[in-house]
User: Which sequence fits this backbone?
């Protein structure tokens, strides 16, 4: 009697929990607000896998170090220093003059401890060496750039307004993004994939970009210049300084505004205090020169500085549509990606396909399930009905489990449930066959049932544990849909062991204890 | 109601030689087909490429579709009808990656509508880069390998009651795989080496149950993969999931028979092994038929009613359930008997 009561409590608690967690899926908005999420293949949407070019992140960090060393050497008046970046992780240095050499070495040691000196040679008053990022530093920059990229992309997507996006790091250098229900995939791709590195660079005046000779410290960039009156545009080249006077890192805000004169949108940006100070200094020092606004290596415009600009705001004009301007404002607000990203994988599913899949999945589940229920009832009679009850509870438990774990239901996941229906009766079949066998040997009913359960339990546990191993491996290996399959398979295995060994057993025990029957319908 | 009368004693194991020959022929055909086709036909999950599923509002021909594909540079793709004729649904597959084409989906809809004269709806568009595919291939092989490994270890521990020895076996396998991976051996050869090492280790320690189980699982995997190769079906991620499920399912079957063998060895320890095996198979026959039957049934329902996405997945399961059920009787049990250490 006592054994019954705690078993009953456990069963009731488990079933109640399952029911409570299934309700919100059927009637949205009810407590506990945990729904079974539908995978992209069922509700439509887009999945992207991005590869972060972390080598580029290391390279551009080192480039900044190079510029900083140059700047410091200039301030300290160390002369005859030449620095060139010879690989993504190394800078070749040549310094001549004993005094310069010792002061330069001291400078690097004191101010730039993150780089290591290698292959130092000294001959005839000229010192050559390599400044190299150690592996540890490279690994740190790589991890940081992936994390930063993830954070930036999350910001952009949040501002773009997608409900329940799933963004996560996959492997070492990949970012997986799932955007359920999104329709304009092209726009989303551009929004996510844009590096959005905004730079203000001075134009190297007095040098014709078409002359062919490029002075060190400058480079040629292109842009499309448009005449605002006639709206005709042409490709133009600019000779600009390599070093950015100011970057988007100092930005605090970016908004879309309307140019009333030409009736077209532009993006107005605001700098933080430090940025505003730099902007004021740069504009003050370079009056009558041009300042190029460069976004991801393309010159958007290069207005001439008429006066020192205080207050820390600027504007980016160009041929934008309203949509493009507002996307640009979003990416500028969210910040630049630390390194360019490549789209390695893209999967889009239209909403109609998902609806079809759900309908077909439910149909095959219904047909398969109904026939098994019917068959069990014919083959095992009343006991078969008990197995059928277990089957129904099984599906309830899987559904509850999915909601509880916040798992995602995918098409292979539905297949997993259907498969579980087929395999779940295995446990009951094993038990019933054992009971039949024991009865055939002439054992009394009570003993036959007890022995049937006892012997079958070991077999059932063995068989299900091995299947569970497979399910766990699948989960580890799986991406998206396969993971969904592994989850439902696992839940199905656990649920079927529970319903067969605990639920039907308790029903049998009750019946045998209170009704004391002499025969069994099996 | 009873399908199998109690006391039935069909001589399954007596026909093991015929079964072995059939199995060996099946495996030879499978491997032969894989070699003949120069490897498996990988879907874009593993090979990289572009896959587009399009539905038209009226009947169209493949030639019309191809014409519509030309402006986006996909004219050399394979175009295949999906599902029933009246659904007007097609699968377009290209090996090339067109990630650079902007708004591919919109452009496809436009050009396909123009070329066919009926409206086109891109229902699904997948693009997978070659590197992703390559990584996944390695991961899939590893997944199959690890599940086989863990399972056999579990069986050797559980059936032979020798957890320490099975721990040693795991150490040997993992050690040799690690050593070979340091030498830069590629994953397929690594798996092959690991398989040989594990077979040898099971033989050395006299783990006959594990031997039976692992050979049976490999047999099933090879045959299912072989059927896929013969039918020219694509090897995709869901198919790998199905393959692992088949492993789990077939093992389920094998374990139930093994369990019975273990029980019967204790009960009838004077009988010869062949008799015990036959009795065990017959004892569990009714359950085998019921479970396989019901599983096969739902899998068939999935195949016919479940729609295009899980079509190949359920096909793999159908083959797997049939092969797995038969192999538990005709491969796992006899191999286990053959590898049995001499009884004292």
Assistant:
């Amino acid at each position: 009697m006592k054994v019954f009561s705690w078993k009953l409590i456990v069963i009731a608690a488990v079933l109640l929990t399952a029911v409570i967690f299934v309700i919100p899926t059927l009637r949205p908005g009810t407590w506990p607000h945990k729904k079974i999420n539908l995978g992209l293949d069922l509700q439509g949407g887009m999945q992207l896998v991005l590869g972060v070019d972390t080598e580029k992140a290391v390279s551009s960090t080192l480039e900044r170090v190079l510029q900083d060393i140059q700047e410091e050497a200039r301030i300290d008046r160390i002369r005859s220093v030449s620095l060139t970046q010879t690989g993504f992780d190394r800078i070749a240095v040549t310094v001549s003059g004993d005094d310069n050499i010792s002061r330069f070495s001291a400078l690097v040691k004191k101010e730039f401890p993150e780089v290591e000196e290698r292959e130092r040679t000294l001959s005839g008053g000229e010192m050559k060496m390599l400044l190299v990022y150690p592996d540890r530093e490279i690994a740190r920059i790589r991890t940081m750039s992936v994390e930063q990229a993830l954070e930036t992309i999350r910001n952009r997507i949040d501002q773009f307004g997608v409900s329940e996006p799933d963004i996560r790091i996959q492997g070492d250098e990949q970012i997986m993004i799932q955007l359920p229900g999104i329709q304009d995939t092209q726009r989303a791709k551009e929004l996510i994939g844009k590096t959005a590195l905004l730079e203000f660079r001075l134009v190297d005046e007095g040098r014709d970009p078409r002359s062919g000779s490029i002075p060190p410290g400058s480079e040629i960039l292109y842009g499309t210049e448009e005449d605002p009156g006639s709206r005709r545009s042409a490709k133009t080249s600019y000779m600009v300084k390599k070093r950015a006077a100011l970057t988007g890192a100092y930005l605090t805000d970016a908004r879309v505004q309307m140019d009333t004169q030409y009736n077209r949108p532009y993006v107005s940006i605001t700098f933080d205090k430090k940025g505003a100070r730099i902007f004021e200094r740069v504009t003050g020092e370079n009056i009558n020169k041009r300042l190029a606004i460069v976004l991801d290596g393309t010159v958007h415009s290069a207005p001439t500085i008429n006066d020192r600009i205080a207050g820390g705001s600027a504007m980016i004009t160009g041929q934008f549509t309203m949509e493009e301007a507002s996307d640009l404002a979003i990416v500028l607000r969210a910040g630049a990606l630390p390194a360019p990203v490549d789209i390695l994988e893209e999967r889009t599913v239209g909403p109609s396909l998902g609806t079809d899949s759900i309908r077909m999945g439910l149909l095959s589940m219904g047909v398969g399930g109904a026939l098994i229920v019917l068959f069990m009832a014919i083959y095992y009679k009343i006991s078969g009905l008990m197995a059928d009850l277990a089957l129904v509870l099984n599906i309830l438990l899987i559904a509850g489990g999915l909601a509880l774990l916040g798992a995602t239901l995918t098409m292979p996941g539905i297949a997993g449930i259907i498969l579980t229906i087929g395999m779940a009766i295995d446990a009951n079949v094993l038990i019933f066959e054992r009971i039949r066998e024991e009865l055939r040997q002439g054992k009394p009913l009570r003993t036959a049932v007890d022995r049937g359960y006892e012997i079958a339990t070991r077999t059932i546990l063995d068989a299900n544990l091995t299947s569970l191993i497979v399910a766990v491996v699948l989960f580890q290996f799986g991406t998206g849909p396969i993971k969904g399959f592994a989850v439902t398979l696992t839940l199905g295995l656990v649920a079927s062991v529970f319903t067969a060994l605990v639920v039907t057993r308790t029903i049998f025990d009750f019946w045998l204890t209170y009704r004391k029957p002499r025969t069994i319908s099996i | 109601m009873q399908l199998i009368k109690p006391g039935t004693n069909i001589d399954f194991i007596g026909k093991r030689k015929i079964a072995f020959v059939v199995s060996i022929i099946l495996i030879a055909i499978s491997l032969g087909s894989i070699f003949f086709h120069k490897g498996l036909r990988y879907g874009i999950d593993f090979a990289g490429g572009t896959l587009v599923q399009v539905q038209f509002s009226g009947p169209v021909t493949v030639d019309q579709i191809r014409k519509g594909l030309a402006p986006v540079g996909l004219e050399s793709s394979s175009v295949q009808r999906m599902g029933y004729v009246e659904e007007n649904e097609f699968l377009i597959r290209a090996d090339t990656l067109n990630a650079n084409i902007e708004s591919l989906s919109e452009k496809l809809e436009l050009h396909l509508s123009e070329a066919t004269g009926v409206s086109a709806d891109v229902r699904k568009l997948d693009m997978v880069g070659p590197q992703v595919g390559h990584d996944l291939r390695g991961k899939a092989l590893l997944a199959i390998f690890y599940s086989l490994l863990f399972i056999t270890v579990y069986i050797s521990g559980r059936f032979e009651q020798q957890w320490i020895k099975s721990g040693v076996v795991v150490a040997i396998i993992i050690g040799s795989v690690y050593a070979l991976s340091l030498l830069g051996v590629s994953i397929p050869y690594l798996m092959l080496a690991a398989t040989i090492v594990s077979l040898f280790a099971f033989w050395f320690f006299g783990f006959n149950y594990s031997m039976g189980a692992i050979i049976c699982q490999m047999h099933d995997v090879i045959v299912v993969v072989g059927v896929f190769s013969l039918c020219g079906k694509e090897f995709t991620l869901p198919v790998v999931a199905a393959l692992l499920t088949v492993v789990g399912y077939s093992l389920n079957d094998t374990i139930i028979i093994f369990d019975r063998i273990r029980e019967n060895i204790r009960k009838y320890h004077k009988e010869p092994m062949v008799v015990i095996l036959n009795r065990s198979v017959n004892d569990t026959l009714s359950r085998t038929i019921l479970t396989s039957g019901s599983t096969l049934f739902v899998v068939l329902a999935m195949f016919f009613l479940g729609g295009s996405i899980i079509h190949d997945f359920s096909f793999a399961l159908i083959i797997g359930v049939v092969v797995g059920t038969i192999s538990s009787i005709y491969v796992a049990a006899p191999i286990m008997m053959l590898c049995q250490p001499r009884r004292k």
